[in-house]
């Protein structure tokens, strides 16, 4: 399985679908630029903002209150924005496309 990260300049990074990890961990492990994960996944920094492809968004699960709070402070938030550290990867996400914002906080 795989997850495809697409940078703002269209550069694609194909990463292994690592079930049980978070999208932030996968991005960091694969050295995908634009996802820093400064707080280590505590939902406290907002440096793991990602934009999920619209067709895949409903597979990323619920947004908890803490994540909603961080996202509300993210200027580049879109309708399909998530914090990568709050999205646990499942088999259902095989082939998912994830976009990186132009600027990361
Ligand atoms: Fe800090 Fe996601 S890694 S909010």
From TrEMBL:
<keyword id="KW-0001">2Fe-2S</keyword>
<dbReference type="InterPro" id="IPR036010">
    <property type="entry name" value="2Fe-2S_ferredoxin-like_sf"/>
</dbReference>
<keyword id="KW-0408">Iron</keyword>
<protein>
    <submittedName>
        <fullName>2Fe-2S iron-sulfur cluster binding domain-containing protein</fullName>
    </submittedName>
</protein>
<dbReference type="InterPro" id="IPR001055">
    <property type="entry name" value="Adrenodoxin-like"/>
</dbReference>
<dbReference type="Pfam" id="PF00111">
    <property type="entry name" value="Fer2"/>
</dbReference>
<feature type="domain" description="2Fe-2S ferredoxin-type">
    <location>
        <begin position="1"/>
        <end position="104"/>
    </location>
</feature>
<dbReference type="InterPro" id="IPR012675">
    <property type="entry name" value="Beta-grasp_dom_sf"/>
</dbReference>
<keyword id="KW-0411">Iron-sulfur</keyword>
<keyword id="KW-0479">Metal-binding</keyword>
<dbReference type="InterPro" id="IPR001041">
    <property type="entry name" value="2Fe-2S_ferredoxin-type"/>
</dbReference>
